[in-house]
Amino acid sequence: DGGITQSPKYLFRKEGQNVTLSCEQNLNHDAMYWYRQDPGQGLRLIYYSQIVNDFQKGDIAEGYSVSREKKESFPLTVTSAQKNPTAFYLCASKQVTQTSSYNSPLHFGNGTRLTVT
Amino acid sequence: QKEVEQDPGPLSVPEGAIVSLNCTYSNSAFQYFMWYRQYSRKGPELLMYTYSSGNKEDGRFTAQVDKSSKYISLFIRDSQPSDSATYLCAMRDGNNRLAFGKGNQVVVIP
Questions:
Q1: What is the 3-state secondary structure (H, E, C) of chain A?
Q2: How far is A108 from chain B (nearest CA, A)?
Q3: Closest CA relative to residue A86, chosen from A7, A34, A13, A33
Q4: Residue B100 to residue A42, Cβ atoms within 8 A
Q5: How far apart, in whole angstroms, are the C-alpha atoms of residue B26 and residue A93?
């Protein structure tokens, strides 16, 4: 079955440590996204990538880094510079073509809940 | 004013009732409108997708868009306990920028 796999489902880290969240998709989608979801705040965009080896900052990129070395993979690193890293992190992807760029919806993974103490 | 406003609820209804959810928005550049359903500890899943004013039906679900009033709605007929979830509205402008509502928690009581 095609889909987006995020791992691990739960992650615990000590303050001051960097941590990398995995996101893999087999939908052959061009674009991939990382969102953060906090209670009462909705989804906020961290980083996105439209093609391999290229990515852009979203609305809350500070303290995060990404890479896009392969089409199917878009890992997110939460660095020690992120002041409030405890959150639910969602990875998403969508197809981007000349005809579908503006009307293809996002598909989400099942998220990683990160707790930093 | 937030770009997308959505009452977070929770909204509790008895089984079989009609659930009515809505979002308002301020940016007239939004052209595409989506509703996502999110179960606890899961990622959002796309429920409905529309790009024009009017109604769109899919089974028990109806999405309604009123661009003149900047108002979108989702109706769930004959609600079931399995409909208990958080429902997020989302909308996209011509520059492919996506904005989400905060989500509205729905509880359907058997």
A1: CCCEEEECCEEEECCCCCEEEEEEECCCCCEEEEEEEECCCEEEEEEEEEECCEEEECCCCCCEEECCCECCECCEEECCCCCCCCEEEEEEEECCCCCCCCCCCCEECCCEEEEEC
A2: 6
A3: A13
A4: yes
A5: 26
pLDDT along chain A (117 residues), means of 10: 88 93 95 93 93 95 97 96 93 78 79 95
pLDDT value of residue B107: 96
Residue pair B3/B25 in contact by the 8 Å Cβ criterion: yes
Q: Which of A40, A105, A111 sits opposite B49 (nearest CB)?
A: A105
What is the per-residue pLDDT across B50-64, written as a single tens digit (0 to 9) for each? 887 889 999 999 999
The verdict on B100 touching A (C-beta cutoff 8 Å) is yes
CA-to-CA dists, residue B104 to A13, A29, A48, A60, B101, angstroms? 30, 29, 25, 23, 8
